[in-house]
Amino acid sequence: MIQSRAVVGTAHASRYLQQLAKHWSHRFETEFDTEKARIALPLGEARLAASPEALTIDLSVADPASLPDFHAVIVRHLERFAFRETLQIDWA
């Protein structure tokens, strides 16, 4: 498994985590509460963790070639929910 992580500074981490999880729960296997989430998407698995200062996003994929697409999907959805603020999302 190939893994990637982004730590996104925001005071709204729990809200964004829940919005992302609820959004995908209608189509994909999802487990979440106010502080953590696991979402099984076709591209791989996303695990999110919310703290008062940041949203940590951990992605796991089987195919390394799919990682850029997975990044793009997560960023696109997160930016849609966080339209009131500009987020800095750097993957490592």
Automatic annotation (TrEMBL):
InterPro entries: UCP028291 (IPR014543). It holds the Pfam family DUF2218. It comes from the Bacteria. This is DUF2218 domain-containing protein. The lineage of its organism: Bacteria, Pseudomonadati, Pseudomonadota, Alphaproteobacteria, Hyphomicrobiales.
